[in-house]
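Researcher: Final request for today, and then I'll write up notes for the group meeting. The sequence and the SMILES for pyridoxal-5'-phosphate follow.
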Amino acid sequence: MAYTTSKALYSETIAKIKEEGLYKDERIICSPQSAQIRVRFPADAPEKEIINLCANNYLGLSSHPEVMKAAHEGLDKRGYGMSSVRFICGTQDIHRQLEEKMSKFLGMEDSCLFSSCFDANGALFEALLGAEDGVFSDRLDHASIIDGVRLCKAQRFVFEHSDMKDLEEKLKSSNCRTRLIITDGVFSMDGDMAKLDEICALAEKYDALVAVDDSHATGFIGKTGRGVHEHHNVMNKVDIVTTTFGKALGGATGGCISGRKEIIELMKQRARPYLFSNALMPAVVYASLRVLDILSESTERRDRLEKLSQTWRKGLTEAGFDLKPGNTPIIPVMLYDAKLAQAFSRDLYEEGVFAVGFFYPVVAKGQARIRTQISAGLNQEQLDRALAAFIKVGKRHGVVK
Ligand SMILES: *Cc1c(COP(=O)(O)O)cnc(C)c1O
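Model: Predicted protein-pyridoxal-5'-phosphate complex:
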């Protein structure tokens, strides 16, 4: 019985994870995703109505009636599934429509859909870069970027987080055919924005391509929500944007690479997750098309999100919490210790606030935190209640006075 040995090994590992306070218990949500949800925690506890401060539902579109209606329409008109990858018989007119609409929204020449942004990042580097090339990646880039880079044969240069001197040093001393700089637009764990304007300037100086993963930005960062390239006014300088439909844009599933025409054309010939994984389901495509229409009609949601994020940050700062600096809806409350983060989150739950603790391996050891995320679906009254809960729990744990 081979499994006897492995079983002991796995059980030991799990016990160790628990001992270090790093075990993740999932809370069970019994309602649609929203600013206020019904949750069971522990899993057999009764349902509880609670304010949600940890969804990527930035624009409050996850359960928006028009988005749901569009998804139903997609289901009715184009069926449930494609049962094919795109290049065999998985491309409907609506897939091309969504690609065109995304290109237009992001200011890019063309786009290519994936099952997820994890897949998009898994596809990008291997399809574009060979052993003669170099990829320059920020130390805090998302796990899917790290994995994507691992899949390609290019030389790897990891520059310190948003450290332009270090990036320049590495660009200067490298000897590669193609140089590609890849960064998160908004860093998911810290909530700060990449210095994309400076990155683009360096790219110009050292003849490098610029790719940005705007998963935590598309739809709401920048004046009209195009992303970090809009915020930094470098829309025409970025060569590649990867992003997700699984966050602000309705939050279901799906990813996308947008960029220069030849790059997208090459993706459709070479990218393994594109060639070997199923096409997006029509309901998701329909709903995503509707989301882009909603965002093009008005900036009301992103404006509201910006305002709520600012008041939330201000409230926490005035209460004395230690926050990561930034100006996005991701506002991490630093606690450093994993067990404290777990206890803090549990107490917040008792006080009616859903905000989970983040700790190793999701962030570095000794960098545990409660990551709060604001949604345009929240209102000020809910944020006031949430702040009161943070202060109460913060005092209990001696985090604030
Ligand atoms: C969430 C996220 C992804 C993964 O997106 P999915 O579509 O959920 O796979 C990729 N990159 C970044 C920066 C993310 O935050």
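Model: Residues 116-118, 121, 142, 144, 184, 188, 213, 215-216, 244, 246, 255 surround pyridoxal-5'-phosphate (CB under 6 Å). The first helix runs from residue 2 to 19.
Researcher: Thanks, that's everything.
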